[in-house]
Predict the structure.
Amino acid sequence: MTRATILTIEDDPAIRRGIVDALDFNQYSVIQAADGDEGLKKSTQNEYDLLLLDLALPGTPGLEILREVRKLRPTQPVIILTAKGEESDRVRGLEDGADDYVVKPFSIKELMARVEAVLRRTPQRPSNNEAVSFPTGQVDFERRELRFVDSSRSELSEKEVELIRYLANNRGRAISRDELLSSVWRLNPKGISTRTIDMHIARLREKLRDNKEKPEILLTVRGKGYMWAAQPTQVGD
Amino acid sequence: MTRATILTIEDDPAIRRGIVDALDFNQYSVIQAADGDEGLKKSTQNEYDLLLLDLALPGTPGLEILREVRKLRPTQPVIILTAKGEESDRVRGLEDGADDYVVKPFSIKELMARVEAVLRRTPQRPSNNEAVSFPTGQVDFERRELRFVDSSRSELSEKEVELIRYLANNRGRAISRDELLSSVWRLNPKGISTRTIDMHIARLREKLRDNKEKPEILLTVRGKGYMWAAQPTQVGD
DNA sequence: GGCAAGTTGTAACATTAGGTTAGAATACCA
DNA sequence: TGGTATTCTAACCTAATGTTACAACTTGCC
């Protein structure tokens, strides 16, 4: 069991190698990208616990990657790597939502400290197969089904599971259709025009037995997308 | 400066006196209600940091008060007081969302421990005049105005301040119009039919310079109400 | 292969919640 | 008392979402 999955976007092979080794040694699972285009692709197609992003890259520039990722995944943790002197880049990066930065040349020790710090303050999401509950029941990701308090069940399809997982992992945050298409469907279309998501939501609401007129679990956020309702109250301890 | 404001709904004058004294001694601000009707009124008209609710009351029964309050304020912390033996009431109370219970007769020490515990695990809201920020600026409750990053400002009216405060204090949670009417307007109408809230929201969006078609700060949750957007990312430390 | 069941996507239409405008009521103040 | 700011109401309108019905695709099985 690795501690977290980290995407490293860095073109210098020596530096990349160093980073990967260090992360690997510290029990992280590491994915690599050697240039901007590959980085953009990997970072937008998948969600990682952390992105290590060199700003000076061949291909798509680091800052653009950052902005794209940020648009799609507002909460994706990102640490940027900048060369000494390129202070303006660093400032732009932080403005664009990077969580922290490391200035090259850096020591492995320093990098690891930053990594740990950012991961530490990332709100801990339920891990992949942890139970997600809603007022009238809970989601069993293992068995791909919903179990209700009256112990009845409904089965979930593949896409439904992924959709529910993504939404539930981000409860309390309104997720745009773009973000869903990118994260759940692994597509990357700017400004979509498909009702597919709405369809799936409708089907999910049905299975969740959510209130049809006034949903209480899977909320519609006008002009934005959908949201898994924040837990109203936690009863007892 | 008191630590928190607590509403005590308890008909027995001796017990009530004891509770009030103890809370007072511990720096809490205490409001009292001596029967169910008064309790229902006070608990629905105002929001408190904590509700101490005796279940056996003349007038409106405790459980009904609990349910009404819960409908209006899903996060209102509540501790119920039950007589020894009335176990079914206690269970019902917890089912209906009470956060904890104390069985009579209880020691002051025990009560205080419960109070502290519940308050401790209540998600700490920004206190009344703490700054609330949004991506393009922040709310200054003192001066009743919005300050933007470009250091321009807009003034807020009384109602606007209260509305913004309530929504922002509950960011990430969709607030129903009923809850707003009850908490901000201090009205108690079941199933409203006024567009007043929508109006105020529109004006607020204007002042917040929120995106008109796709709001990013003050979101509309279909069939439910409105929501102050959850913080997308916290930049840096 | 090819049929059946299940899943996912699309097109087209329907509905209505919420945005919006304009003005009436009310409160505030000098 | 008149003027100004604020709040509320009524009425209208639109576009975002819900919804239906079916087409396309996948999967497994004989």
User: Anything to note?
Assistant: The helical segments of chain B are 13-25, 36-45, 62-72, 87-95, 108-121, 158-169, 177-183, 196-208. The longest strand of chain B covers residues 78-83. The interface with chain A takes residues 70, 74-75, 94-95, 97-100, 172-174, 213-215, 219-224, 227, 229-230, 232-237 of chain B (CB under 8 Å).
